[in-house]
Amino acid sequence: MTISLCMIVKDEAENLPRCLNSVKDCVDEILVLDTGSQDDTIAIAQSYGAMVDTAEWGNDFATARNQSITDVTSDWILVLDADETLTAAGRELLQQLRSGEAIADCPVDNILAINLMRYEINADQSPYSEVSRLFRNRVGLQFERPYHETIDDSVMRLMQTEPHWQVILWPQPAIAHIGYGADVIAQRDKFARAAKIMAAYLAEHPDDAYICNKLGALFVSVGHTERGRILLERGLATQPTDAATLYELHYHLGLAYRDARLNAIAIDHYQKAVAQDVPAALKVGAWINLGSLYQAAQNSKSAIAVYEEAIAATPDFALPYFNLGIAKRAMGDLPGAIAAYEQAIEREPNYAAAYQNLGVALFKLGKVPESIEALQRAIALYRQSDPAQAERLLNKISALGIKV
């Protein structure tokens, strides 16, 4: 089997080398569509042997994606963005695909597309997403929707006429994505562009639950909670059957109702989110938020249960351990809280809040030297990232008569 990498780019000179270095030895050709770069993006792509085409940007990601795959000569197509890299697990998958051996016990000849798990490097609560980025090069498979473009609808249509095809999930994270940091999301121009494109599409396709979800989630993320909630409820009212869309609708409605301080409704939506038939790793954000709401309701036992679900799904993610520590401390289980904080720190060595809470728990157990050491570490880390918090913590500690 041969594989082509297809990308659309603009002014990606900083990110592109990292992306291409991660995948260059795993694909047979690289095709790049540049939509107006003013930096060295084109020259960098060509230095990796890429075939580069250019196009004027038309505010439609699906159109650009489809143009980028037009001249593919390989059997399979891999789609990446410049701010993504192929992981070791992703390279293993491509090697397996190239060899023609079965993947996830499914013969390659029966596989139409392979959905990939993507690790969101800068995500606060939901470290994984599922993306449709690896699929056969064949007529009928195409991207649709101008923003949050996907091949999923065309895959479903093809499977209805040719039912022997299968779509499988590669469970290990195959892509790492750096684009969801708070600084990126906060860019006003990106929000305005996304909102404009999706609103125009939704005006012509008012019952598209997928875009109701994406646009509603975008509004919630920038504080326009009521506008977002209305769109999310509208998407739910269309009665979508796709588990991934249902998960996201309920998850984002949980956020919206939590922001509106309607916690009971938020809990109901998070419970419905985690009940969906999606990979467990995708549910971590809902479990964490559900646990926080349980804690707010003084229900630490239920909070512990959902944090443990999150840990089982993503054992290398620090946040569920940290929250588990808070819940165990609330129940009076200081040794359990300490163990959880230590697990969080093991996974994220610069976790200032975990050191702070660890120090407090150790102090309550009478382990003063160990407590002081943890608090000193917390203050040092806060001074690097949040000097004001470092001073607040230092003042609180001093008020207790503790010298650090």
UniProtKB/TrEMBL annotation:
- Domain Glycosyltransferase 2-like: where? 4-166
TPR repeat coordinates: 284-317, 318-351, 352-385
List the PROSITE patterns hit by this protein, alphabetically.
TPR
Q: Which UniProt keywords apply?
A: TPR repeat
Q: Which SMART domains match?
A: TPR
Q: Which InterPro entries match?
A: Glyco_trans_2-like, Nucleotide-diphossugar_trans, TPR-like_helical_dom_sf, TPR_rpt
Q: Which CDD domains match?
A: Beta4Glucosyltransferase
Protein name (record): Tetratricopeptide repeat protein
